[in-house]
Amino acid sequence: MSATITALQRKLETDSAAYQTLQKDYAKAVESRQRLDSQLQENKLVQDEFKLLKDDANIYKLIGPVLTKQDKTEAVTNVDKRIDFIQAEIDRVEKQLKDLQERTEKKRMELVQTQTALQQQSAK
């Protein structure tokens, strides 16, 4: 077995491991994006419910095991801020997904090139 084939096999193993890591990272980012989307929808529902309430309505917030009365203005402000935060996180994760997708595709192309080179060397 020539040194070229051995080097190509090592490169193939290294690239394959890197590719698998990128795929795992992408899957984690997708999961994170889905979780954030769920949180966003949940908070938008709360926001919609607040719009239906009268200004003097009683609003309670669960803090640990205790329900604490909260001012409507404060509750609306908190939910609005939470929505803004979640949206910013979604934007960040979207950029991360795009980057991971590009890196994964690049690594996949490297794998194909290495496999092709290895097959050509083996055929000689």
From TrEMBL:
Chloroplast is among the record's keywords: no
Keyword Coiled coil: yes
A GO CC term attached to the entry: prefoldin complex
InterPro entries assigned: PFD_beta-like, Prefoldin
Keywords in alphabetical order: Chaperone, Coiled coil
A matching Pfam family: Prefoldin_2
An individual GO BP term: chaperone-mediated protein complex assembly
Gene3D superfamilies in the record: 1.10.287.370
GO terms, molecular function: protein-folding chaperone binding; unfolded protein binding
Domain of life: Eukaryota
Coiled coil location: 76-117
Protein family according to the UniProt entry: Belongs to the prefoldin subunit beta family.
Record's protein name: Prefoldin subunit 6
Lineage: Eukaryota, Fungi, Fungi incertae sedis, Mucoromycota, Mortierellomycotina
